[in-house]
């Protein structure tokens, strides 16, 4: 994945994060649903910044970026679908997204150690 595409996806995740955070804070009345959407927004924002800032190259760097892209899509997307679009079945994808995000962080740590 090129840095241009990575930055584009990061910008979309940043836009989503700000928008979903605002919806969670000001539109959704159910407190649990609002908290879930705000969590999805936070994860998207954090990983948008990481996608832009991470400069690891090679196959590990690409794999880390793909894990973060797919992880945010599944985690935040599933929560959005469940709590904003009332698609309860979509919530089952959130744990998969979370695992992908954890794998991305673990691989980033291993990659940093490997390069030292």
UniProtKB/TrEMBL annotation:
It is found in: Membrane. It is a multi-pass membrane protein. Keywords: Membrane, Transmembrane, Transmembrane helix. The chain crosses the membrane at residues 40-57, 64-85, 91-113. GO terms for cellular component: membrane. The keyword Transmembrane helix applies. Pfam families: DUF423 (PF04241). The keyword RNA-binding does not apply. Its main location: membrane. Belongs to the UPF0382 family. PANTHER family: TRANSMEMBRANE PROTEIN 256. This is DUF423 domain-containing protein. The lineage of its organism: Bacteria, Pseudomonadati, Bdellovibrionota, Bdellovibrionia, Bdellovibrionales.
């Amino acid at each position: 994945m090129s840095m241009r595409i990575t930055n584009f996806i990061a910008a979309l995740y940043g836009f989503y994060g700000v928008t979903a955070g605002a919806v969670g804070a000001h539109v959704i009345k159910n407190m649990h649903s609002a908290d879930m959407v705000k969590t999805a927004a936070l994860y998207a924002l954090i990983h948008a910044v990481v996608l832009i800032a991470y400069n690891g190259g090679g196959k590990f760097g690409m794999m880390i970026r793909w894990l973060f892209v797919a992880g945010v899509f599944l985690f935040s997307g599933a929560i959005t679908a469940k709590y904003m679009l009332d698609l309860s079945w979509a919530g089952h994808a959130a744990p998969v997204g979370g695992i992908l995000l954890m794998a991305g962080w673990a691989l980033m740590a291993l990659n940093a150690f490997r390069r030292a």
